[in-house]
Amino acid sequence: MSDISDLVFDLSGDSLPADYPFALWAALVRQVPSLAQDEQVGVLPLRGSENNARLLLNRRSKLVLRVPASLAEAASTLAGSHLEIADTRIGLGSVKRRAILPHPTLHAQLAAGAEDESEFLMAVQQHFAATGITANTLCGIRRTLTDGTASISGFSLVVHDLKPEASVLLQSTGLGEGRCYGCGIFTPYKVITDLE
User: Fold this and answer.
1) Alpha-helical runs (H) found in the chain
2) CB-based contact 184:174 (threshold 8 Å)
3) How far is the CA of 57 from the CAs of 6, 74, 145, 178, in angstroms?
4) CATH top class, domain 4-99
5) What pTM does this model have?
6) pLDDT in tens, 69-81
């Protein structure tokens, strides 16, 4: 059983810059500095629609932090706070704790790695072999996350035919660097044929 769980915060606000992940992490750490002391902490990519370099938030948009049990209480204090992100202010409402559940197919919007797709997939398979994960993979489009000064590049990735234990392990540990920016974080994925 993983000691990692998701903290799901209600979110209020209209939009964020499309390159929000670096600024969002900085804002979270300003509120709860201990988040930066554990590399297991992840911030799931926000859901919304992009329009003119903005991510438009909607009523279903949530802020989800993936945290170890040791940081759950501290991270939960974010409920009721406001975050200043670039030129925008967003509010965090009530928080719910959600267990990591097994799903046979998972998706990461961006997993950091080599520029060459075959090298990237080879590194993924080596990581799986080292951690005892057996699964099949589908590599999507190459992506770069940047805020103008820092950047992380990699590919979107679908991992399927996962056994329950391996699914929970992959969601709990992630893949590659940049978990705090939403990179290498896996979430349930329903339709393999819909790969971007």
Assistant:
1) 21-31, 69-76, 117-131, 164-173
2) yes
3) 20, 25, 19, 23
4) alpha beta
5) 0.92
6) 999 999 999 999 9
